[in-house]
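Quick sanity check, L domain-like protein:
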Amino acid sequence: MALAYYQLKGPVWDYADGWLGPYNECLWMGLQCNNLDSVNSLALDTNNLFGKFPSELAALSGLASLALTRTHLTGTIPTELFSMPKLRELRLYANQMTGSIPTEVAFASRLESLRLETNFFSGTLVTELGLVSTLTDLNIGFNKFRKSIPTEIGQLRKLKFLRVSRNALSGRLPSEIGRMDALEVLAMTDNLMYGSIPSYYGLLWNLRDFRIAGSGVGGFLPTELALMSNLERLDLGNSNFHGTLMTEMGRLTNLFKMSLNDCDFSGPLPSELGYLWNMTRLQMKNNAFTGTIPHEYGRLDELEQFTLEGNKLIGEVPLEVCDLLTEKLEQFVVDCHNRRSGIGFDCEPGCCTLCRDTS
């Protein structure tokens, strides 16, 4: 541990209570030990660490949790870490580390959480990730990973959280992800992918949070999406989705946030969305929706934000929707009526909070 202290510039740490002192290392700040005085946890988060990750930490054979986050670590992940027999949690997020995930990750037989987000990791995602069958949490967002997501990722049947947002991942969404029935969060925003959402994703019954905004994915929404009965958040914005919005979306009654902004959806607004009782934010601006606003939306009395500007809607805002402003609705935005095109609404005082000028 003394070697790691000096390699990581221990004298400039913000907190180093006990380190290199006369007491047992189990009393050093950031260390925890088991009953046999063997170090099983090391956490030095937000502690002004500098330097390359010390591979010597892999000698702590009893270590189950290693967390060195929000600091200034550089260099690559030592391959030796994944041979640590008891390692369950590896958190290295918010550093300046580089390189890729080593193929030796396959040897991490007990690893449950791998958090590498917000670094400078790059390269391709190794297929060996699919061999870490104990993983429940994988976050590699905000890095520079490229090429396609390996289909082997679908072998992670215990995975609950998969976050790969803000990379340069390309290719199609692996249909094999539909096998990951423990998945609760799937975040893939802001990548360079293409194709559509595989219908198999409808089998993700435990999914609560599905975000693929700006991922490059588009096309028609599969009707199987409506089978995600536990879905609470859906973000498809800034994508190439098109076609009419299916009426089956009204079955997703646990949804409280849905963003369809900046897509190419068309046709009428489904009245069935009025069954989404828990909805607090409904964002549908900058599409090509036509027709009128269904009066059934007046049932959404939990609604706080409702944005519809940038569409081709006409008619009058239903009184039932206007009345939501007396409930929890704080932002309701539509297009102002354009007399030339006929598109938009005469925004009555006390109804919409803002109408966007379309003249």
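Posting the structure with no commentary besides this: The first strand starts at residue 31 and ends at 33.
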